[in-house]
Write a structure and sequence with these properties.
It is built from 9 helices and 2 strands. It is mainly alpha-helical. Strand 1 and strand 2 form a beta hairpin. About 15% of the residues have low confidence. The structure holds heme C. The site of heme C (HEC) has 29 residues, from helix 4, helix 5, helix 6, strand 1 and strand 2.
């Protein structure tokens, strides 16, 4: 029995070392994607949005605002949900404040992406990045289609956002 003792510590160290160093490469890519509620939205987000907003939506100073808070708030009201759909469909132009920080730039439109892709992308933003609660309904393809049918320019999208802020939604 006493002979086993010398082996215990090295084995424990080896296991700890594997955990510390080896864990990340061992996790399969599919496993990482499974952690997100909207993996298709995640893929579209990384391809189309991460360049400006960052891979986790934290924003880039003077380039694009963080989208880790407002989208969850917007998704909880009917007008806020319209706002999210409009923003991705038609972009946004003009000064906005996010938290205490002002941005005055232009987001391009993503009308070239189909309704299902935009809904999935927004759901990734709302639930995976902004952590909306379970009481919030996922955005639907139909909600995107409804906004697509009345086109706006980016300045009008920003005006609609102002009406939300005034309403406290
Ligand atoms: C070229 C850079 C760029 C890309 C790419 C981009 N955005 Fe934006 N986004 C912005 C900017 C800039 C604003 C703020 C616009 C303004 O100042 O009026 C913004 C605003 C937003 C807002 C509104 C935040 C709020 O508080 O109202 C959301 C939501 C958003 N983006 C989501 C996305 C999503 C989803 C994608 C990908 C489909 C995307 N953005 C791609 C630059 C970008």
């Amino acid at each position: 029995m006493r002979r086993r003792a010398p082996f215990t510590l090295p084995v424990a160290l080896l296991a700890a070392g594997c955990l510390a160093i080896g864990l990340a490469p061992v996790v399969p890519v599919a496993g990482a994607a499974d952690k997100t509620a909207y993996p298709e939205g995640a893929t579209a987000f990384q391809a189309n949005c991460a360049l400006c907003h960052g891979p986790a939506g934290a924003g880039v100073p003077a380039l694009a605002p963080p989208i880790t808070s407002n989208p969850a708030r917007f998704a909880a009201s009917a007008e806020g949900r319209r706002q999210l759909a409009m923003t991705v469909l038609f972009g946004m132009f003009g000064e906005i404040s996010v938290g205490e920080v002002r941005f005055n730039s232009q987001m391009p439109d993503f009308a070239r992406l189909d309704d299902a892709t935009l809904a999935a992308t927004l759901n990734f933003v709302v639930f995976d990045l902004a952590h909306a609660g379970a009481e919030v309904e996922p955005l639907t393809t139909g909600e995107i289609a409804a906004e697509r049918s009345h086109a706006l320019d980016g300045a009008a999208v920003r005006e609609h956002r102002k009406s939300l802020a005034a309403a406290g939604t």
